[in-house]
């Protein structure tokens, strides 16, 4: 958790989330979470001792079994109601084996127009941002 002091000197804490967009051909990788029945982009909370790149690579490995490299930042999103800032990165696979993990019941690639109805809405938006960027 990163701490930021505002102008009134009261201490506010913000959680930093890091998520990966991983494409195979034109399909996107999603993970079905074990704690709730939602599909999401692989990712999660940044730990204090890591860079954002290290954090997203760790989260992808923990949720999918894949080793990835960060290609570039795709977007920065804020969720003030949850005191959270989220960074989303385009990543490429270096190795590993796609598998269910302690955090994900299932990991699968989906065509953009065939994503499950129970995909987190914000994650659909982040996927759409990258797809639109590629077509411009």
Task: Tell me what you see in this structure.
By secondary structure, the protein is α+β, with helices and mostly antiparallel strands. It has one domain (2-135): Nucleoside Triphosphate Pyrophosphohydrolase (Alpha-Beta Complex). The protein is built from two helices and eight strands, in the order βββββαβββα. It has helices at residues 52-64, 121-135, and strands at 2-5, 11-24, 27-33, 39-40, 43-45, 66-79, 84-96, 104-110. Strands 1, 2, 3, 4, 5, 6, 7 and 8 form an eight-stranded mixed β-sheet that branches. The longest helix has 15 residues, at 121-135. It is globular, with a radius of gyration of 15 Å. The mean pLDDT is 85.
Task: Please supply descriptive tags for the structure shown above.
single chain; 136 residues; alpha+beta; Nucleoside Triphosphate Pyrophosphohydrolase; eight-stranded mixed beta sheet; 2 helices; globular
């Amino acid at each position: 958790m990163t701490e930021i002091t505002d102008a009134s000197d009261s201490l506010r804490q913000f959680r930093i989330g890091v998520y990966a967009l991983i494409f195979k051909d034109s399909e996107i990788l999603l993970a079905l979470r074990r704690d709730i029945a939602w599909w999401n982009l692989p990712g999660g909370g940044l730990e204090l001792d890591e860079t954002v790149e290290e954090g997203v690579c760790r989260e992808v490995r923990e949720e999918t079994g894949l080793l990835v490299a960060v290609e570039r930042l795709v977007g920065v999103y804020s969720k003030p109601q949850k005191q959270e800032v989220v960074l989303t990165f385009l990543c490429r696979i270096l190795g590993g084996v796609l598998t269910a993990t302690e955090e994900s019941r299932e990991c699968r690639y989906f065509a953009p127009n065939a994503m499950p109805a129970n995909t987190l809405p914000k994650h659909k938006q982040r996927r759409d941002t990258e797809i639109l960027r590629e077509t411009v």
